[in-house]
Amino acid sequence: MSLITFDANKKRDVVLIGRVTLDFNPNELNRTLDKVETFSMYLGGSPGNMAVGINKLGKKVGFIGCVSDDQFGDFVLHYFEARGIDTSQMTRAQHGERMGLTFTEIKSPTESSILMYRDAVADLQIRPEDVDEQYIADSKILIVSGTALSASPSREACLIAAQYAKKHGTRILFDIDYRPYSWRTKKEIQIYYSLLAGMADVIIGSRDEVNLTEGLDEEAEDPKDHVIAERYIAHGAKIVVIKHGKKGSIAYTADKKAYKVESYRIKLLKSFGGGDAYGSAFVYGLLSGWSVADSLQHGTAHAAMVVASHSCSNAMQTVEQIDAFMKEHKDEKVITELAWEAGL
To answer: Are the beta carbons of 49 and 306 closer than 8 angstroms?
Structure first.
């Protein structure tokens, strides 16, 4: 039996709530942003990218969000609609709020960064009144991005969506997705992150993001990963994934198993977008009834393929493409079962 089960009668596989933005990726590589002359525009934002990724893998996807009432908002809606992602729950900003913009910098084959413009952004204007209870009830999974909790009214919209999900048996995946923009204090971060984490069936975040969620003092000795995972599992979580950058990540499951997740060896083009690809293929695996280990492996393969590509959203792969990549890299062992308390 799968660790997480889903109601097959629900007509939609996944609904995401939160940030969808625009990415401007440089066409001139291996130089700093101030030296770049031209960019390619893509749909961006972690939830937006995941929506595209899950959709590309063949699942039915809807999105709850707010976009600007201008041509860039048109771009996002048309992009989703052309791919069959349901936009019926998306709204337009009413007071001139604009799309968030991300300019990416690919300095070298091993170094890249992002520059985000997030003042008065449209995606934080989604309201609780915009969240339809039946729409959540009709979905198997609700994915909430932590960035959407950084300001009102978006944070209240996410919380009511999560409450509807709990009421109707819709599984909740919380992607912590910390961005410093819009947050005022660490205590505020802890309050809202911990609220969502306490309701989630699946939690994914870096160790730094988990520390923010837990309100851990930087001067104090941090508890081990498995101790934190045990706390979330005690509150009902089935899977807790804690990332450690280049060291890899560990997935802890409610049946007391731990899996170390490492990266495939590929020629890296950029360091961003991998997490969104990872999440989309991981969710696909869970929806398909795969084991946690198999779902993690497909997520890792998908991440490798996307960080080797120029874009994030446009680089999302099909199931067949991911399978072909894994066959090509069959000699690389990226998933290892660990003792519960082993750590990295």
So the answer is: no
